[in-house]
Amino acid sequence: MAYSDKVLDHYENPRNVGVLDKNDDHVGTGMVGAPACGDVMKLQIRVNDDGVIEDAKFKTYGCGSAIASSSLVTEWLKGKNLDQAMTIKNSDIAEELALPPVKIHCSVLAEDAIKAAIADLKQKQAIEV
Amino acid sequence: MSKTPIYLDYSATTPVDKRVAEAMIPYLTEHFGNPASRSHSFGWTADDAVENAREQVAALVNCDSKEIAWTSGATESNNLAIKGAANFYAASKGKHIITVMTEHKAVIDPVRELERQGFEATFLEPEPNGLLDIAKFKAALRPDTVLASVMLVNNEIGVIQDIEAIGNLCRANGTIFHVDAAQATGKVEINLEKLPVDLMSFSAHKTYGPKGIGALYVRRKPRVRLEAQMHGGGHERGFRSGTLPTHQIVGMGEAFRIAKDEMALENARIRRLRDKLLAGLSEIEEVYVNGDLKQRVPHNLNISFNYVEGESLIMAVKDIAVSSGSACTSASLEPSYVLRALGRSDELAHSSIRFSIGRYTTEEDVDYTIDLLKIKIEKLRELSPLWEMFQEGIDISKVEWAAH
User: Fold this and answer.
1) I need a labelling partner for B283 at 20 to 30 A (CA). Which of A16, A98, B76, B166 fits?
2) What ipTM does this complex have?
Protein backbone atom coordinates (compact mmCIF):
# COMPACT_ATOMS: atom_id res chain seq x y z
CA MET A 1 0.00 0.00 0.00
CA ALA A 2 1.34 3.40 -0.94
CA TYR A 3 1.35 5.93 1.86
CA SER A 4 1.65 9.66 1.33
CA ASP A 5 4.89 11.35 2.35
CA LYS A 6 3.05 13.11 5.17
CA VAL A 7 1.78 9.82 6.60
CA LEU A 8 5.25 8.32 6.36
CA ASP A 9 6.77 11.37 8.06
CA HIS A 10 4.34 11.18 11.00
CA TYR A 11 4.80 7.41 11.18
CA GLU A 12 8.60 7.63 11.20
CA ASN A 13 8.71 10.70 13.47
CA PRO A 14 5.51 10.78 15.47
CA ARG A 15 4.91 14.08 17.29
CA ASN A 16 3.87 14.32 20.93
CA VAL A 17 3.94 10.66 21.86
CA GLY A 18 3.41 10.25 25.56
CA VAL A 19 1.20 10.51 28.57
CA LEU A 20 -0.29 13.33 30.64
CA ASP A 21 -1.48 12.81 34.22
CA LYS A 22 -5.04 11.60 33.77
CA ASN A 23 -5.91 12.60 37.34
CA ASP A 24 -4.99 16.24 36.70
CA ASP A 25 -8.19 18.38 36.58
CA HIS A 26 -6.77 20.25 33.62
CA VAL A 27 -6.22 17.06 31.59
CA GLY A 28 -8.86 15.41 29.42
CA THR A 29 -8.35 11.86 28.19
CA GLY A 30 -10.10 10.26 25.25
CA MET A 31 -9.69 6.60 24.31
CA VAL A 32 -11.49 5.39 21.19
CA GLY A 33 -11.45 2.32 18.99
CA ALA A 34 -11.06 -1.34 19.87
CA PRO A 35 -8.18 -3.82 19.62
CA ALA A 36 -10.25 -6.29 17.62
CA CYS A 37 -10.88 -3.60 14.99
CA GLY A 38 -7.16 -2.93 14.73
CA ASP A 39 -7.19 0.65 16.04
CA VAL A 40 -7.07 2.13 19.51
CA MET A 41 -6.29 5.83 19.96
CA LYS A 42 -5.59 7.51 23.26
CA LEU A 43 -5.51 11.29 23.11
CA GLN A 44 -4.86 13.61 26.03
CA ILE A 45 -5.09 17.40 26.22
CA ARG A 46 -4.12 19.79 28.98
CA VAL A 47 -5.77 23.20 29.17
CA ASN A 48 -4.56 26.27 31.09
CA ASP A 49 -6.83 28.40 33.24
CA ASP A 50 -7.92 30.36 30.17
CA GLY A 51 -9.22 27.16 28.57
CA VAL A 52 -6.49 27.07 25.94
CA ILE A 53 -4.92 23.70 25.06
CA GLU A 54 -1.27 24.03 25.99
CA ASP A 55 -0.24 20.42 25.56
CA ALA A 56 -1.48 17.32 23.75
CA LYS A 57 -0.14 13.77 23.82
CA PHE A 58 -1.17 10.56 22.11
CA LYS A 59 -0.58 6.86 21.92
CA THR A 60 -2.01 4.81 19.07
CA TYR A 61 -2.25 1.11 18.34
CA GLY A 62 -3.02 0.97 14.66
CA CYS A 63 -1.81 1.25 11.10
CA GLY A 64 0.46 3.98 9.77
CA SER A 65 -2.51 6.18 8.86
CA ALA A 66 -3.97 5.89 12.35
CA ILE A 67 -0.64 6.82 13.93
CA ALA A 68 -0.25 9.75 11.52
CA SER A 69 -3.82 11.00 12.11
CA SER A 70 -3.37 11.12 15.86
CA SER A 71 0.11 12.60 15.62
CA LEU A 72 -1.22 15.35 13.34
CA VAL A 73 -4.13 16.32 15.62
CA THR A 74 -1.82 16.73 18.62
CA GLU A 75 0.00 19.39 16.57
CA TRP A 76 -3.25 21.06 15.55
CA LEU A 77 -4.75 21.09 19.03
CA LYS A 78 -2.00 23.04 20.73
CA GLY A 79 -2.91 26.71 21.14
CA LYS A 80 -6.60 26.18 20.37
CA ASN A 81 -9.41 26.73 22.84
CA LEU A 82 -12.00 23.97 23.27
CA ASP A 83 -14.53 25.53 20.91
CA GLN A 84 -11.90 25.79 18.20
CA ALA A 85 -10.75 22.23 18.89
CA MET A 86 -14.32 21.01 18.38
CA THR A 87 -14.27 22.36 14.83
CA ILE A 88 -11.49 19.99 13.67
CA LYS A 89 -13.15 17.68 11.18
CA ASN A 90 -12.06 14.26 9.98
CA SER A 91 -12.15 15.55 6.42
CA ASP A 92 -9.49 18.15 7.33
CA ILE A 93 -7.25 15.38 8.68
CA ALA A 94 -7.85 13.11 5.70
CA GLU A 95 -7.11 15.95 3.30
CA GLU A 96 -3.93 17.05 5.07
CA LEU A 97 -2.57 13.48 5.10
CA ALA A 98 -3.94 12.55 1.66
CA LEU A 99 -5.54 9.43 3.14
CA PRO A 100 -6.97 6.93 0.64
CA PRO A 101 -10.68 6.06 1.00
CA VAL A 102 -9.96 2.81 2.89
CA LYS A 103 -8.11 4.83 5.56
CA ILE A 104 -10.75 7.53 6.12
CA HIS A 105 -11.86 5.67 9.26
CA CYS A 106 -8.48 6.58 10.81
CA SER A 107 -9.31 10.29 10.51
CA VAL A 108 -12.82 9.66 11.86
CA LEU A 109 -11.26 7.95 14.86
CA ALA A 110 -8.93 10.91 15.43
CA GLU A 111 -11.89 13.31 15.41
CA ASP A 112 -13.72 11.03 17.84
CA ALA A 113 -10.64 11.04 20.08
CA ILE A 114 -10.64 14.85 20.23
CA LYS A 115 -14.34 14.91 21.15
CA ALA A 116 -13.84 12.20 23.78
CA ALA A 117 -10.92 14.05 25.37
CA ILE A 118 -12.88 17.32 25.51
CA ALA A 119 -15.95 15.56 26.93
CA ASP A 120 -13.78 14.00 29.63
CA LEU A 121 -12.27 17.37 30.49
CA LYS A 122 -15.66 19.11 30.63
CA GLN A 123 -17.09 16.40 32.84
CA LYS A 124 -14.16 16.71 35.22
CA GLN A 125 -14.39 20.48 35.41
CA ALA A 126 -18.16 20.41 35.85
CA ILE A 127 -17.75 18.12 38.83
CA GLU A 128 -15.04 20.37 40.16
CA VAL A 129 -17.41 23.36 40.04
CA MET B 1 26.23 -5.68 7.14
CA SER B 2 23.65 -7.64 5.23
CA LYS B 3 22.26 -6.25 2.02
CA THR B 4 18.65 -5.19 2.48
CA PRO B 5 15.95 -6.12 1.94
CA ILE B 6 16.88 -9.48 3.43
CA TYR B 7 14.92 -12.36 1.96
CA LEU B 8 13.30 -14.40 4.72
CA ASP B 9 10.31 -15.66 2.77
CA TYR B 10 11.58 -19.00 1.45
CA SER B 11 8.20 -20.60 2.15
CA ALA B 12 6.66 -18.25 -0.41
CA THR B 13 9.19 -19.17 -3.05
CA THR B 14 12.91 -19.81 -3.41
CA PRO B 15 15.45 -18.53 -5.89
CA VAL B 16 16.40 -21.07 -8.54
CA ASP B 17 19.70 -22.67 -7.56
CA LYS B 18 22.36 -21.68 -10.13
CA ARG B 19 23.10 -25.36 -10.75
CA VAL B 20 19.43 -25.82 -11.60
CA ALA B 21 19.36 -22.84 -13.96
CA GLU B 22 22.46 -24.13 -15.76
CA ALA B 23 20.92 -27.56 -16.19
CA MET B 24 17.79 -26.02 -17.69
CA ILE B 25 19.31 -23.73 -20.30
CA PRO B 26 20.34 -26.33 -22.93
CA TYR B 27 16.75 -27.56 -23.00
CA LEU B 28 15.49 -24.16 -24.07
CA THR B 29 17.84 -23.58 -26.98
CA GLU B 30 19.67 -26.72 -28.02
CA HIS B 31 17.59 -29.72 -26.93
CA PHE B 32 14.28 -28.08 -27.66
CA GLY B 33 12.49 -31.14 -29.00
CA ASN B 34 9.01 -32.20 -27.96
CA PRO B 35 9.37 -35.18 -25.61
CA ALA B 36 6.29 -36.69 -27.27
CA SER B 37 7.99 -36.76 -30.71
CA ARG B 38 8.86 -40.41 -31.20
CA SER B 39 10.17 -40.15 -34.74
CA HIS B 40 13.48 -38.29 -34.38
CA SER B 41 16.42 -37.64 -32.09
CA PHE B 42 15.18 -34.19 -30.97
CA GLY B 43 12.21 -35.87 -29.35
CA TRP B 44 14.26 -38.78 -27.99
CA THR B 45 16.77 -36.43 -26.35
CA ALA B 46 14.01 -34.42 -24.70
CA ASP B 47 12.21 -37.58 -23.60
CA ASP B 48 15.43 -38.92 -22.05
CA ALA B 49 15.79 -35.70 -20.06
CA VAL B 50 12.17 -35.86 -18.88
CA GLU B 51 12.53 -39.47 -17.77
CA ASN B 52 15.83 -38.73 -16.03
CA ALA B 53 14.14 -35.91 -14.11
CA ARG B 54 11.25 -38.21 -13.23
CA GLU B 55 13.79 -40.60 -11.70
CA GLN B 56 15.33 -37.72 -9.74
CA VAL B 57 11.97 -36.62 -8.33
CA ALA B 58 11.03 -40.23 -7.50
CA ALA B 59 14.38 -40.75 -5.77
CA LEU B 60 13.81 -37.90 -3.32
CA VAL B 61 10.50 -39.38 -2.16
CA ASN B 62 11.39 -43.06 -2.66
CA CYS B 63 8.76 -44.14 -5.14
CA ASP B 64 8.76 -45.63 -8.65
CA SER B 65 9.29 -43.00 -11.34
CA LYS B 66 6.19 -44.38 -13.12
CA GLU B 67 4.18 -43.01 -10.20
CA ILE B 68 5.18 -39.40 -10.94
CA ALA B 69 3.00 -37.28 -13.26
CA TRP B 70 4.09 -33.77 -14.23
CA THR B 71 1.81 -30.83 -13.60
CA SER B 72 2.15 -27.05 -13.61
CA GLY B 73 2.65 -26.92 -9.83
CA ALA B 74 1.22 -27.97 -6.51
CA THR B 75 -2.06 -26.12 -7.08
CA GLU B 76 -2.74 -28.15 -10.19
CA SER B 77 -1.56 -31.34 -8.48
CA ASN B 78 -3.99 -30.70 -5.61
CA ASN B 79 -6.86 -30.00 -8.00
CA LEU B 80 -6.12 -33.10 -10.05
CA ALA B 81 -5.78 -35.31 -6.98
CA ILE B 82 -8.82 -34.05 -5.10
CA LYS B 83 -11.31 -33.57 -7.92
CA GLY B 84 -9.89 -36.48 -9.92
CA ALA B 85 -10.07 -39.05 -7.12
CA ALA B 86 -13.32 -37.82 -5.59
CA ASN B 87 -15.11 -37.95 -8.92
CA PHE B 88 -13.63 -41.31 -9.92
CA TYR B 89 -14.51 -43.08 -6.67
CA ALA B 90 -17.75 -41.26 -5.70
CA ALA B 91 -20.02 -43.83 -7.34
CA SER B 92 -18.37 -46.81 -5.64
CA LYS B 93 -17.43 -45.33 -2.28
CA GLY B 94 -19.48 -42.23 -1.49
CA LYS B 95 -19.36 -38.47 -1.45
CA HIS B 96 -17.82 -37.53 1.88
CA ILE B 97 -14.43 -35.78 2.08
CA ILE B 98 -12.27 -34.95 5.11
CA THR B 99 -9.71 -32.19 5.19
CA VAL B 100 -8.33 -29.67 7.70
CA MET B 101 -9.13 -26.00 8.28
CA THR B 102 -5.45 -25.07 8.06
CA GLU B 103 -4.85 -26.54 4.61
CA HIS B 104 -3.61 -24.36 1.78
CA LYS B 105 -6.31 -22.65 -0.31
CA ALA B 106 -5.33 -24.94 -3.18
CA VAL B 107 -6.82 -27.80 -1.15
CA ILE B 108 -9.67 -25.95 0.54
CA ASP B 109 -11.04 -24.41 -2.64
CA PRO B 110 -11.18 -27.64 -4.70
CA VAL B 111 -13.00 -29.25 -1.74
CA ARG B 112 -15.42 -26.32 -1.65
CA GLU B 113 -15.98 -26.77 -5.37
CA LEU B 114 -16.80 -30.44 -4.80
CA GLU B 115 -19.26 -29.39 -2.09
CA ARG B 116 -21.04 -27.28 -4.69
CA GLN B 117 -21.20 -30.39 -6.87
CA GLY B 118 -22.95 -32.38 -4.15
CA PHE B 119 -20.11 -33.76 -2.04
CA GLU B 120 -20.14 -33.31 1.72
CA ALA B 121 -16.97 -32.10 3.43
CA THR B 122 -15.69 -32.14 7.00
CA PHE B 123 -13.09 -29.47 7.80
CA LEU B 124 -11.31 -30.63 10.94
CA GLU B 125 -10.08 -28.07 13.43
CA PRO B 126 -6.45 -28.62 14.46
CA GLU B 127 -5.27 -28.48 18.07
CA PRO B 128 -3.93 -25.10 19.31
CA ASN B 129 -0.41 -26.26 18.32
CA GLY B 130 -1.55 -26.75 14.72
CA LEU B 131 -1.41 -30.54 14.78
CA LEU B 132 -4.32 -32.77 13.99
CA ASP B 133 -5.68 -34.96 16.78
CA ILE B 134 -5.62 -38.43 15.22
CA ALA B 135 -8.59 -39.54 17.33
CA LYS B 136 -10.65 -36.68 15.90
CA PHE B 137 -9.64 -37.71 12.40
CA LYS B 138 -10.65 -41.30 13.12
CA ALA B 139 -14.00 -40.16 14.48
CA ALA B 140 -14.65 -38.14 11.33
CA LEU B 141 -14.14 -41.12 8.99
CA ARG B 142 -17.39 -42.58 7.63
CA PRO B 143 -18.17 -45.56 5.41
CA ASP B 144 -18.78 -43.11 2.56
CA THR B 145 -15.57 -41.09 3.09
CA VAL B 146 -14.12 -41.27 -0.38
CA LEU B 147 -11.13 -38.96 0.11
CA ALA B 148 -9.05 -37.35 2.83
CA SER B 149 -6.54 -34.58 2.21
CA VAL B 150 -4.02 -33.52 4.86
CA MET B 151 -0.88 -31.53 4.19
CA LEU B 152 2.50 -32.82 5.31
CA VAL B 153 4.00 -29.42 6.25
CA ASN B 154 1.91 -26.35 6.89
CA ASN B 155 2.92 -23.34 4.81
CA GLU B 156 2.31 -20.73 7.51
CA ILE B 157 3.42 -22.40 10.73
CA GLY B 158 5.63 -25.22 9.41
CA VAL B 159 4.13 -27.97 11.56
CA ILE B 160 4.47 -31.58 10.35
CA GLN B 161 1.32 -33.71 10.49
CA ASP B 162 1.47 -37.42 11.36
CA ILE B 163 0.80 -38.59 7.84
CA GLU B 164 1.56 -42.23 8.61
CA ALA B 165 -1.07 -42.52 11.33
CA ILE B 166 -3.68 -40.69 9.24
CA GLY B 167 -2.84 -42.80 6.19
CA ASN B 168 -3.24 -46.05 8.12
CA LEU B 169 -6.71 -44.99 9.22
CA CYS B 170 -7.60 -44.14 5.61
CA ARG B 171 -6.35 -47.52 4.38
CA ALA B 172 -8.43 -49.35 6.94
CA ASN B 173 -11.47 -47.36 5.88
CA GLY B 174 -10.93 -47.73 2.12
CA THR B 175 -10.48 -43.96 1.81
CA ILE B 176 -8.14 -42.44 -0.77
CA PHE B 177 -5.51 -40.34 1.01
CA HIS B 178 -4.00 -37.25 -0.60
CA VAL B 179 -1.11 -35.29 0.91
CA ASP B 180 -0.01 -31.81 -0.17
CA ALA B 181 3.76 -31.94 0.25
CA ALA B 182 4.60 -28.64 -1.49
CA GLN B 183 6.33 -27.30 1.63
CA ALA B 184 7.97 -30.58 2.61
CA THR B 185 10.43 -31.59 -0.11
CA GLY B 186 14.03 -31.19 0.98
CA LYS B 187 12.85 -30.38 4.50
CA VAL B 188 11.51 -33.69 5.82
CA GLU B 189 12.23 -37.25 4.74
CA ILE B 190 9.50 -38.66 2.56
CA ASN B 191 9.45 -42.41 1.98
CA LEU B 192 6.47 -43.31 -0.18
CA GLU B 193 7.41 -46.98 -0.19
CA LYS B 194 6.51 -47.03 3.50
CA LEU B 195 3.98 -44.22 3.86
CA PRO B 196 0.33 -45.20 3.39
CA VAL B 197 -0.31 -42.33 0.96
CA ASP B 198 -2.17 -42.63 -2.34
CA LEU B 199 -1.59 -39.21 -3.87
CA MET B 200 1.04 -36.59 -3.07
CA SER B 201 1.50 -33.10 -4.53
CA PHE B 202 4.89 -31.52 -5.19
CA SER B 203 6.13 -28.16 -6.33
CA ALA B 204 9.55 -27.24 -7.75
CA HIS B 205 9.77 -23.59 -6.76
CA LYS B 206 9.65 -24.20 -3.01
CA THR B 207 12.80 -26.32 -3.34
CA TYR B 208 15.09 -24.08 -5.46
CA GLY B 209 13.55 -25.16 -8.75
CA PRO B 210 11.65 -23.05 -11.29
CA LYS B 211 8.08 -21.82 -10.94
CA GLY B 212 5.43 -23.34 -13.17
CA ILE B 213 6.29 -27.00 -12.68
CA GLY B 214 5.15 -29.57 -10.16
CA ALA B 215 4.25 -33.21 -9.94
CA LEU B 216 1.62 -35.54 -8.57
CA TYR B 217 2.52 -38.91 -7.12
CA VAL B 218 -0.15 -41.47 -8.03
CA ARG B 219 0.26 -44.83 -6.33
CA ARG B 220 0.41 -47.93 -8.56
CA LYS B 221 0.25 -50.64 -5.89
CA PRO B 222 -2.57 -50.63 -5.00
CA ARG B 223 -3.44 -48.70 -8.12
CA VAL B 224 -5.10 -45.32 -7.68
CA ARG B 225 -7.33 -44.01 -10.46
CA LEU B 226 -8.16 -40.41 -11.27
CA GLU B 227 -10.49 -38.58 -13.58
CA ALA B 228 -8.34 -36.30 -15.71
CA GLN B 229 -9.00 -32.59 -15.32
CA MET B 230 -7.09 -31.59 -18.47
CA HIS B 231 -8.05 -33.42 -21.64
CA GLY B 232 -6.04 -33.59 -24.84
CA GLY B 233 -3.16 -35.62 -26.19
CA GLY B 234 -3.19 -38.14 -23.38
CA HIS B 235 0.21 -37.23 -21.97
CA GLU B 236 1.28 -38.52 -18.55
CA ARG B 237 -0.70 -41.76 -18.88
CA GLY B 238 -3.82 -39.73 -19.56
CA PHE B 239 -3.75 -38.04 -16.17
CA ARG B 240 -2.68 -34.69 -17.55
CA SER B 241 -2.59 -33.75 -21.20
CA GLY B 242 -0.34 -31.00 -22.49
CA THR B 243 3.12 -30.79 -24.05
CA LEU B 244 5.73 -31.35 -21.38
CA PRO B 245 7.89 -28.29 -20.62
CA THR B 246 11.24 -30.09 -20.86
CA HIS B 247 13.40 -27.30 -19.38
CA GLN B 248 11.07 -26.85 -16.40
CA ILE B 249 11.03 -30.59 -15.78
CA VAL B 250 14.83 -30.79 -16.03
CA GLY B 251 14.97 -27.95 -13.49
CA MET B 252 12.67 -29.70 -11.06
CA GLY B 253 14.66 -32.92 -11.40
CA GLU B 254 17.97 -31.20 -10.73
CA ALA B 255 16.48 -29.24 -7.81
CA PHE B 256 15.18 -32.44 -6.23
CA ARG B 257 18.52 -34.22 -6.85
CA ILE B 258 20.31 -31.43 -4.97
CA ALA B 259 17.71 -31.59 -2.20
CA LYS B 260 18.28 -35.33 -1.76
CA ASP B 261 22.05 -34.96 -1.71
CA GLU B 262 22.25 -31.93 0.56
CA MET B 263 19.17 -31.84 2.77
CA ALA B 264 20.77 -33.44 5.82
CA LEU B 265 23.58 -30.90 6.01
CA GLU B 266 21.45 -27.99 4.88
CA ASN B 267 18.69 -28.64 7.40
CA ALA B 268 21.20 -28.80 10.25
CA ARG B 269 22.60 -25.40 9.24
CA ILE B 270 19.14 -23.88 8.80
CA ARG B 271 17.97 -25.26 12.12
CA ARG B 272 20.88 -23.52 13.87
CA LEU B 273 19.93 -20.22 12.23
CA ARG B 274 16.26 -20.65 13.08
CA ASP B 275 17.06 -21.47 16.70
CA LYS B 276 19.28 -18.42 16.87
CA LEU B 277 16.49 -16.26 15.47
CA LEU B 278 14.03 -17.74 17.96
CA ALA B 279 16.41 -17.18 20.87
CA GLY B 280 17.01 -13.58 19.82
CA LEU B 281 13.35 -12.72 19.32
CA SER B 282 12.41 -14.47 22.56
CA GLU B 283 14.29 -11.75 24.40
CA ILE B 284 11.43 -9.45 23.42
CA GLU B 285 8.56 -9.51 25.92
CA GLU B 286 5.12 -10.82 24.99
CA VAL B 287 6.02 -12.81 21.90
CA TYR B 288 4.18 -16.00 21.04
CA VAL B 289 5.36 -18.78 18.73
CA ASN B 290 2.54 -20.03 16.54
CA GLY B 291 2.47 -23.78 15.99
CA ASP B 292 4.25 -26.69 17.61
CA LEU B 293 8.00 -26.12 17.92
CA LYS B 294 9.08 -29.77 17.98
CA GLN B 295 7.03 -31.28 15.18
CA ARG B 296 8.04 -28.56 12.75
CA VAL B 297 10.37 -28.02 9.80
CA PRO B 298 13.63 -26.28 10.73
CA HIS B 299 13.05 -23.43 8.23
CA ASN B 300 9.97 -21.90 9.73
CA LEU B 301 9.41 -19.51 12.59
CA ASN B 302 6.00 -17.89 12.99
CA ILE B 303 5.75 -15.41 15.84
CA SER B 304 3.10 -13.00 17.09
CA PHE B 305 4.15 -9.75 18.73
CA ASN B 306 1.49 -8.77 21.22
CA TYR B 307 0.24 -5.15 21.53
CA VAL B 308 1.63 -4.20 18.13
CA GLU B 309 -0.73 -3.70 15.21
CA GLY B 310 -0.07 -5.82 12.13
CA GLU B 311 0.06 -3.25 9.35
CA SER B 312 2.32 -0.86 11.25
CA LEU B 313 4.53 -3.85 12.06
CA ILE B 314 4.88 -4.64 8.36
CA MET B 315 5.73 -0.98 7.66
CA ALA B 316 8.35 -1.14 10.40
CA VAL B 317 10.14 -4.21 9.07
CA LYS B 318 10.32 -3.24 5.43
CA ASP B 319 14.05 -4.04 5.36
CA ILE B 320 13.26 -7.72 5.66
CA ALA B 321 11.10 -9.64 3.20
CA VAL B 322 8.73 -11.69 5.35
CA SER B 323 5.10 -12.73 5.29
CA SER B 324 2.54 -11.30 7.63
CA GLY B 325 -0.30 -13.08 9.31
CA SER B 326 -2.39 -10.26 7.94
CA ALA B 327 -3.10 -10.32 4.27
CA CYS B 328 -2.87 -6.58 3.78
CA THR B 329 -5.19 -5.82 0.95
CA SER B 330 -6.13 -2.33 -0.05
CA ALA B 331 -9.54 -2.77 1.50
CA SER B 332 -8.89 -4.40 4.84
CA LEU B 333 -6.63 -6.43 7.02
CA GLU B 334 -7.73 -10.02 7.21
CA PRO B 335 -6.09 -12.06 9.95
CA SER B 336 -4.62 -15.37 8.83
CA TYR B 337 -7.28 -18.11 8.74
CA VAL B 338 -4.59 -20.60 9.78
CA LEU B 339 -3.80 -18.71 12.99
CA ARG B 340 -7.50 -18.15 13.65
CA ALA B 341 -8.05 -21.93 13.36
CA LEU B 342 -5.45 -22.39 16.12
CA GLY B 343 -7.63 -20.22 18.34
CA ARG B 344 -5.39 -17.15 18.22
CA SER B 345 -7.15 -13.86 18.94
CA ASP B 346 -7.60 -11.42 16.08
CA GLU B 347 -4.97 -9.15 17.60
CA LEU B 348 -2.33 -11.88 17.86
CA ALA B 349 -3.19 -13.26 14.45
CA HIS B 350 -2.82 -9.76 12.99
CA SER B 351 0.57 -9.11 14.55
CA SER B 352 2.27 -12.29 13.39
CA ILE B 353 5.26 -12.64 11.13
CA ARG B 354 6.35 -15.77 9.29
CA PHE B 355 10.11 -15.95 8.96
CA SER B 356 11.23 -18.68 6.57
CA ILE B 357 14.92 -19.36 6.30
CA GLY B 358 16.64 -20.96 3.34
CA ARG B 359 19.72 -21.99 1.44
CA TYR B 360 21.17 -18.50 1.12
CA THR B 361 20.32 -17.10 4.56
CA THR B 362 23.44 -16.10 6.49
CA GLU B 363 24.17 -15.65 10.17
CA GLU B 364 24.49 -11.89 9.53
CA ASP B 365 20.99 -11.86 8.07
CA VAL B 366 19.66 -13.41 11.26
CA ASP B 367 21.60 -10.98 13.48
CA TYR B 368 20.31 -8.02 11.49
CA THR B 369 16.75 -9.31 11.74
CA ILE B 370 16.91 -9.77 15.51
CA ASP B 371 18.29 -6.25 16.01
CA LEU B 372 15.74 -4.71 13.67
CA LEU B 373 12.80 -6.42 15.37
CA LYS B 374 13.99 -5.45 18.84
CA ILE B 375 14.25 -1.77 17.89
CA LYS B 376 11.00 -1.60 15.91
CA ILE B 377 8.87 -3.52 18.38
CA GLU B 378 10.08 -1.28 21.18
CA LYS B 379 9.26 1.81 19.13
CA LEU B 380 5.78 0.60 18.23
CA ARG B 381 5.05 -0.41 21.81
CA GLU B 382 6.09 3.01 23.03
CA LEU B 383 3.33 4.24 20.76
CA SER B 384 0.83 1.63 21.84
CA PRO B 385 -1.83 2.46 24.45
CA LEU B 386 -2.46 -1.29 24.75
CA TRP B 387 1.15 -1.89 25.77
CA GLU B 388 0.81 0.86 28.36
CA MET B 389 -2.34 -0.74 29.75
CA PHE B 390 -0.68 -4.16 29.80
CA GLN B 391 2.22 -2.72 31.79
CA GLU B 392 -0.23 -1.15 34.22
CA GLY B 393 -1.67 -4.60 34.75
CA ILE B 394 -4.95 -3.99 32.95
CA ASP B 395 -6.46 -7.05 31.26
CA ILE B 396 -7.28 -5.75 27.82
CA SER B 397 -9.73 -8.56 27.07
CA LYS B 398 -11.86 -7.37 30.00
CA VAL B 399 -12.06 -3.75 28.88
CA GLU B 400 -15.33 -2.72 27.30
CA TRP B 401 -14.33 -1.20 24.01
CA ALA B 402 -16.63 1.03 22.05
CA ALA B 403 -17.13 -0.75 18.74
CA HIS B 404 -16.60 1.39 15.68
Assistant:
1) A16
2) 0.93
